[in-house]
Amino acid sequence: MAVRKIIEIGDDGLRKTSHPVEKFDKKLHNLLDDMAETMMHADGAGIAAPQVGILRRVVVIDAGEGILELVNPTITSSQGEQINPEGCLSIPGRRCTVMRPQHITLKAQDRNGEWFEMEGEDFFPIVVSHELDHLDGILYVDKMIEDVTDQLNQQHEEEDE
Question: Concatenated DSSP letters for the chain?
Answer without folding.
Answer: --PPPPP-TT-GGGGSPPBPP---SHHHHHHHHHHHHHHHHTT-SEEEGGGGT--BSEEEE-SSSS-EEEEEEEEEEEE--EEEEEEETTEEEEEEEEEE-SEEEEEEE-TTS-EEEEEEETHHHHHHHHHHHHHTT--GGGGEEEE-HHHHHHHHHHHH-
